[in-house]
Design brief:
heterodimer, A: alpha+beta, hypothetical protein PF0899 fold, elongated, B: alpha/beta, Rossmann fold, 32% helix, 17% strand
């Protein structure tokens, strides 16, 4: 359910940008969502359509780029790809992993007019 | 309330009073596809093709091409490059600064419903109220039962009702901070909505998130709901007095939590019987002294150089 809050936050930033950058319609929104971020993409798409219904981003296309989860093992110091927080290092079996990428949720750019 | 899914931010209440929206007041009503709130012009979308009753429809065959000549499109790209939660994080930073200036040590208590957060708070307040001024912000979807339980201990409590919302956000906390009688060098507890998922991503400006897991739940909860255990700085294993009657494996639960969050400190407590509570109280007191010392140092520097 917090995808509703995320969608509201996206719309707020779009509206802030509309004032400073002088545009009146948003056609496409590009997001970067990490695989380890606590976001359900389908839910976010649903709520984005709901909250933008009466806004300058009405019917805007949502393009979501996934970012792979990456971590460094604190024991064997190797970099590895992970898809969940509970995974162990495939090289040494340690759970002491430091996430270096994949928990981000960013608005990258907008196509506007 | 949104007619599509029943969601809505208009139901957030603090002590029963409607919360001022963080949206600009001149903005249209975004969650209600009603004509009264529909101030934007959509004449460039032919109504015969784009049906306003189907918000999920994305039709690229209409729009600018209907009113603009080919090659004359005003379309351009705008770089944003910001975190989706940048607004929340900005409010959280303001809260954190407000708390730091006053030497207030703030803890955000998170757990699933029924883990014993409010009972733990009541016991903690009883043990600490003679040493520090304490205030509490209670978050629940509905009712002010929890705030009433806290007020019965004699400390001020503010109830935030999130309506259909599933977590507290930094903007709600910012408003609550203005309404609470907070004292210098005090202790603030924020009891989040009982939910082991959504509150994990929302920074409120607290010093630490403290996750509470009770032994009447499954020991694999840290694996099932990893984000919260990843975000927390301390885990309290509550209701440990019930262990003789349960099959809960304490070591396994702690191992799972530390698999998600290596090095996560864990305290085994029973809020009702009092076991382990002194360790928790000592941890809070150390934090309070730290917050007060930092605020004191900042003030001394201000008076010297300000």
């Amino acid at each position: 359910m917090h995808e509703l809050s995320l969608a509201e936050n996206i719309l707020q930033q779009i509206e802030d940008a509309a004032q400073t950058q002088q545009f009146h319609r948003v056609k496409t929104v590009w997001l970067e969502i990490g695989e380890l971020a606590c976001v359900e993409q389908e839910s976010l798409r649903f709520f984005f359509a709901v909250v933008t219904e009466d806004s300058i981003a009405r019917q805007a296309k949502l393009e979501i780029t996934g970012i792979a989860g990456q971590a460094v093992c604190n024991d064997c110091h190797r970099t590895l790809l992970i898809t969940a927080l509970y995974q162990a290092c495939p090289h040494c079996g340690s759970y002491a992993l430091q996430i270096t990428q994949g928990d981000e949720m960013r608005i990258r750019e907008l196509e506007v007019e | 309330m949104c007619t599509t899914c029943g969601c809505g931010v208009g139901q957030t209440r603090i002590n029963g009073k409607t919360v001022q929206s963080q949206q600009r007041t001149d903005a249209s009503l975004r969650f209600r596809p009603l004509q009264s709130g529909h101030v934007h012009s959509h004449e460039h979308v032919p109504s015969s093709v784009a049906n306003p009753q189907t918000p999920g429809t994305i039709d690229f065959g209409v729009g600018i091409a209907g009113t603009h000549a080919p090659g004359m499109s005003q379309t351009r790209m705008v770089k944003i490059e910001r975190d989706i939660l940048a607004k929340n994080n900005q409010y959280a930073d303001e809260n954190r600064q407000y708390l730091a200036e006053r030497g207030i040590f703030a803890l955000n208590l998170v757990s699933s419903p029924g883990s014993g957060k409010t009972t733990l708070l009541v016991k903690t307040i009883e043990m600490l109220r003679d040493r520090f001024p304490i205030a509490v912000i209670e978050g629940d979807q509905q009712t002010d039962h929890d705030a009433a339980r806290i007020r019965a201990t004699g400390v001020p409590a503010l109830q935030i009702n999130t309506g259909k919302g599933c977590h507290l956000d930094a903007h709600m906390i910012g408003q609550a901070l203005q309404q609470l009688p907070l004292q210098q060098n005090s202790l603030l507890f924020i009891e989040n909505v009982g939910n082991l998922v959504c509150p994990s991503g929302f920074d409120l400006g607290e010093a630490h998130k403290v996750v509470i897991l009770s032994v009447t739940e499954g020991e694999d909860k840290p694996l099932k709901y990893p984000d919260m255990f990843h975000a927390a700085d301390l885990m309290l294993l509550n209701k440990c007095d019930l262990l003789p009657y349960l099959t809960f494996d304490v070591n396994q639960a702690i191992a799972y939590a530390q698999r998600i969050h290596p090095g996560l400190p864990v305290m085994q407590i029973s809020a009702t019987k009092g076991s382990g509570m002194q360790e928790w109280i000592d941890w809070i007191m150390a934090g309070c002294h730290r917050a007060a010392a930092i605020s004191h140092t900042a003030q001394a520097l201000d008076s010297r150089f300000g």
